[in-house]
Amino acid sequence: MIHTLTELLAMSVALGLPIMVAAAAEAVSERAGVLNMSVEGMMVTGCLAGVLAAVATGSPWAGLAAGAAAGVLVGVLQGLLSVAWRADQIVTGLALNTLALSGTVFAARLLLDRDTVTPGFDRAALPLLSDLPVLGRALFSLPAPGYLLIGAVVALTLLTSRRTAWGLAVDATGEDAVKADRAGLPVARIRHLAVLLVGGAGGLAGAYIALAQVKTFTDHMTAGVGYLAVVAVIAARWRTGRVAAVALVFGAAQALRFTLPALGVALPAALLVALPYLLALAAVAGLVSGSRRPSDLTVPFVRAGRTG
What is the pTM of this model? Predict the structure, then answer.
């Protein structure tokens, strides 16, 4: 039983990490007023770019960097559409997802062979800490970039807290962009940077999935994880510091698909696959009480006195 629980915790952390880093960045963007439904597209683009770069260079670290860069490119498109051109954020996000999902399938057919060997990351156990019972395997025996993802989440939480100037500027922009502009804050720049942040984090998360977990590219391999990252922000009540806990819950829901059969619990496979998304639906339906979204979330910024 202890062994199974250890495996459950380890798998929850492993599967929750990509959600965690993407959701932490998305929380910042939504606090600034921009909803990125395109996180899924950023992640799957990062998956393919990471694999292509790792195969071309022989270095999974190059793949990780390429994945983050590819996610930023999707973020540039999202920023142009939703911030600069003030298009509907939900529609543009879904459109970018469709483009990314179909485009990566097409590109993979052209550029990757079935027998292609993808360099990937193995577990990098930390001395002494990895020997701790239960927590050692879950937290201190991760692939090397897993520690990088945890560090990124911690850094985002600290740098965008409401005790920092950047955090206050982000919140002011998302609550009332016009007043923030009148106070001298560069609203458009803050929103663009927030979207690019999500792109980099989403691409990094995607490359991590491809290079540290699957070690290859498969069609639609993110399987809705990007949407879970968006929902995690809602469930965390737009607080970056709470995102980690929600992401671990979603990771645990995914891990139960593999650990419940080992415990002798017989449930339909389809139900286990759908469990994370059922939790997501519960959050979206308002079962997370006391949440209040930023007032200007999804509202395009138009400077006062400007009509076009």
Answer: 0.92
